[in-house]
Amino acid sequence: MNQPPQHFPCTTSELELSTDSPPAASSRHGRRLYPIMAVLHYTLDFKLRAPADVSATVHGLQSIFQEQEMTENVHNLYGHGYLATFVGKNGRFAILRMHSHGLVTFDLQCLEGDDVAQVDNLLNALEKKLKALLDGNIQRIKRLPVLIRGSDVDRYWPTADGRLMEYDIDEVVYEKDSAYQNIKILHSRQFGNILILNGDVNLAESDLPYTQAIMGSGKEHYAGKEVLILGGGDGGILHEAVKLKPKMITMVEIDELVIDGCRKHMRKTCGNVLDNLKGDCYEVLVQDCVPVLKKFAEQGRTFDYVINDLTAVPISTAPEEDSTWEFLRLILDLSIRVLRPGGKYFTQGNCVNLTDALREYEKLLGRLSCKVDFSKEVVCVPSYMELWVFYTIWKK
Amino acid sequence: MNQPPQHFPCTTSELELSTDSPPAASSRHGRRLYPIMAVLHYTLDFKLRAPADVSATVHGLQSIFQEQEMTENVHNLYGHGYLATFVGKNGRFAILRMHSHGLVTFDLQCLEGDDVAQVDNLLNALEKKLKALLDGNIQRIKRLPVLIRGSDVDRYWPTADGRLMEYDIDEVVYEKDSAYQNIKILHSRQFGNILILNGDVNLAESDLPYTQAIMGSGKEHYAGKEVLILGGGDGGILHEAVKLKPKMITMVEIDELVIDGCRKHMRKTCGNVLDNLKGDCYEVLVQDCVPVLKKFAEQGRTFDYVINDLTAVPISTAPEEDSTWEFLRLILDLSIRVLRPGGKYFTQGNCVNLTDALREYEKLLGRLSCKVDFSKEVVCVPSYMELWVFYTIWKK
Is-above-0.95 flag for pTM? Predict the structure, then answer.
């Protein structure tokens, strides 16, 4: 989602090491030599009003695990409640824990392809029995949707503020490691294809509101204007801007493999605009935008609109500053230099919850070589599942 | 989210038994006698290209658990890979499993209030060591955002199609069990307060797009018209409709406690419209809508717009039909009877992914006593985190 550098600890890391590997959805291509089975992880939690009677509860549950022919193992928790694990002959593994402060957690891990009805029966039986045993002492029963771990098709893509989100992904459409980043295009049942760069959801085919917001939310007149797009390899902005009959659009995208993937698999976003890198009123330069911006600034070339659609931590072939914030500032400074008086600079900011990062960015805007003013707008981008801030910046 | 009956197995159940209990955010009210600590559940998964050497990997990891002074227990998995559990003196519990088909899963459960830096160090050390040990054989490393289990403030509210979503909930604002349902209003950092009925996300203060869609997406002229709202206890539709100067709005909401909660805590949605149940151009009847509809039908009273904003499985004081679909049909039939020729009936349908339920609903529309036509629209409602279908229905 292209967020500026974040100063909060990220609870999720996603490292994809896919070069030279079979595509993730490789079972469809028959190129994998061993069966791919995800682990299905079920949870069932009872939050209690007061600590429960451990031995009565455990005794009451015994028959359920015995019926399942699971081998029980009671662990010494050094006074931190009760913990038993259970192993089934089919590799099922269960954990029952009764915390001394009044919380019962149950986990069940089994392999994809296990008998779902049997697993459901076990969970239902356990829930029913615990309800009876803990009657009157229950504050909340929570059974989360099953966690699918190690699947070929990864459905979990956290928000920019680090929350767990399960997407309705059913297919890996495209996956490459370019010289710059890991590129994935995944199919979502409701959002269409989604472009994911280095684990960040960038844009889905459903996300016209993103493109509209980063172009000024329909309040600008592009006809006859000169436009510079930084990044934008998915072709969304270019596709929408071309329709508005500008004089000329120059787009500078560093990563040809992003363009390739989106040209093939994000047609609802880019239309046919990426079929050729040059059109009647546009040109796509497959280059690092920093030297291009410098060249334009030196030549005195200017634009009516500069649209920064670069990724989170902008990619460069030769970053000149150590700090990402300083690098962001370099791009901003250069962009404002090539902006005509009266022109506008548009960019996406961050998720609305990352207030520290947003404040830091706005501070940066106050420290540019050229004085600028800005406005911001909060937009709901369908595939993001969190509200996103967009900035409009202009010379004072 | 008010979805019609679903014929798919629901992977999530949420049973709240809060009557007579201290409020969920009770620690703030000092009414709870024992400390509330959630369990933090971390996961770290390595998806491999090929099965790994178990003994070399396990041997390589030993020092990490020894350093943590965790007691190891190796379980017999009956040939289904390797499984070891580890218990720490502070109640930490870890599970390392190496599946024979090339997946390594690691779980770490600890209590809220545990040393986060230490836990992070353990996870980082493990990730680093596994990276080294499995070098060249790694296809994906996945570390999900931590699961928070048994917290006072429940952040997990699944989508209508059963996917796991973590909301940025930070406070329980209101919680009641009425005669009809469990009512919660939770505060989301980005969406404002969210009304949740029986575990279903109904409406957040951010969700004006929902209200606009169920009123005809700005394409209708309400001025001077007569409007009937079924349900709508959050006051959102009433608040927006009143602005449009209709002749009269009649709203029929069964649950006074929903109105009470929303009047206090959903002000961005309802404004001051629920402060009085009667206004210049509206009246709120706190009644079951079925007898009211029957009375209107008998009296020959008709409306220009009927807006059905009832919950998923509509609540009734005396449902006359066993099947929920038949009950839905009863409400639809009665609503169409009180609709003027040329009038429109608006309702929300379901999440766009539940194609079977949507198809079933559309079949129902073909079986009404009065022939109707319909159109539908897919809308992004911010707090839903999934695209939603809305229907416009009119007499043929």
Answer: no
